[in-house]
Amino acid sequence: MGRSGSLEDLLSVAGGALATLAYSISVSEAPCYARHDVERMSNHTAAAEVLLERKGCAGVITLNRPRFLNALNFNMVKDIYPQLKKWEQDPEIFLIIIKGAGEKAFCAGGDIRGAVVEAVKLAPKKAHDFFRREYILNNAIGSFQKPYVALIHGITMGAGAGLSVHGQFRVATEKTVFAMPETAIGLFPDVGGGYFLPRLQGKLGYFLGLTGFRVKGRDVYTAGIATHFVDSEKLVMLEEDLLALKSPSEENIADILETYHTKSRIDQDKSYIFEHMDKINSWFSANTVEQIIENLQQDGSPFALEQLKVINKMSPTSLKIALRQLMAGSSKTLQEVLTMEYRLVRAFMVHHDFHEGVRAVLIDKDRSPKWKPANLKEVTDEDLNNYFKFPGSNDLKF
Fold it and tell me: Who has greater pLDDT, 377 or 267?
């Protein structure tokens, strides 16, 4: 249940981490799924990267890049947002379901290499536009006025978190692997990480945001990241039952999710992460990264030393930015957090560590980034303040 496998491998495979149909019968007369056939919103070619479908009274979003662990790219964001807003206003749509194609991932992150790095080199404004549109989509999910059900089966990291955690319902399975691994590539836990991470119990979110620790299976539910836990073999039936509801209310949807959750058989009483919660709360209550590191050193337990080893590999600048981001975000609204994160990400695009992290993890894959500054002492308060500066007319607008 711990940190088995390689986070860099997952990031590398993912590419980063980063119409209407007429009703034949009235709404009140038949189950939602029986009213009509599937309505296809997107061009369903073999290359379609996101499928936007009306199935009965649900809008269904399928992230359709299984070869790349459904990593989110610019075109996907550009397609999802307007359709989501249309569905929000459509009186014949009662819920949204979002899921990933294949068995390995919901969404393993943003397509950093494809959507961002090349854009920064060739057209910086396009990279900024990717993050701007992505954060606006994150906010739209967080403020969505209808039930939003994210089936976070498999790898769910970075951008995948942004597509799920801000929604009303999040369903994990025993195969869910959740992480915010951005500090490993010289970035910070964005997509609203500054909002949802500090709102997890205790200091768990600070721990996840700084270390990129992977939470697995039922622990994703126990941590509060997911609202429900369902055996993966039952996901298809769960979706069918949701689609078969008659004009479903929020309560109808919650009842079905709770039924599947209650009947889940897997790992009923096991929890890896919460064996260590007291220590995590103690270590990560510090107000500086330096003190967190000292706490880990003083503890000296195998688990503490494992986290210390991980943190020491991360970008010092990213660590300090992330801690300040999470502390500030704990008292901000989601929109305020996303505005802050847009300022940060624009600054990161022109600084060394992000590009070096992507080079080391995703391009050359030598996994030996040369951070600048190379240690925490050299990252000054003035440096940090410059990242959080108000950019004037270039600020994020919702």
Answer: 377
Residue 397 inside a domain? The answer is: no
Residue 330 pLDDT: 98
DSSP SS3 for 11: helix
Cβ atoms 69, 134 nearer than 8 A: no
45 found inside a domain: no
Residue 324 inside a domain? The answer is: yes
pLDDT value of residue 246: 82
* Structure confidence by residue, pLDDT tens digits, 314-362: 999 999 999 999 999 999 999 999 999 999 999 998 899 998 998 898 8
**pLDDT attached to residue 274:** 86
Domain total of the chain = 1
Select from 45, 46, 47, 79 the least CA-distant residue to 61.
79
* Residue range(s) defining the domain that contains residue 297: 50-388
Q: Could you tell me the CATH number of the domain that includes residue 238?
A: 3.90.226.10
- What pTM did the predictor assign? 0.89
CB atoms under 10 Å from CB of 370, counted, come to 11
CA distances for 245 relative to 28, 30, 79, 300, 379, angstroms: 11, 9, 27, 53, 55
**What is the DSSP code string of 297-316?**
HHH--HHHHHHHHHHTTS-H
Q: What residues contact 168, with CB distance under 8 A and at least 6 apart?
A: 144, 147, 148, 149, 227, 250
Extended beta strands in 57-118, E state: 58-63, 95-100, 105-107
Q: Is residue 215 part of a domain?
A: yes
pLDDT of residue 15: 41
Total residue count of the chain as it appears in this document: 398
What φ, ψ does residue 179 adopt, rounded to 5°?
A: -160, 155
Residue with tokens 């899921």: 99
User: In which band, very low, low, confident or very high, does the pLDDT at 227 lie, cut at 50, 70 and 90?
Assistant: very high
Number of H helices, E strands in the chain: 17, 11
- Cβ atoms within 10 A of the Cβ of 381, count? 9
**pLDDT tens digits, 257-290:** 999 999 887 666 567 788 999 999 999 999 999 9
pLDDT at 8 over 60: no
Going across the sheet that includes 215-216, the strands are 105-107, 155-157, 177-179, 215-216
Using an 8 Å Cβ cutoff, are 197 and 208 in contact? yes
The answer to whether 144 and 95 are in contact (CB under 8 A) is no
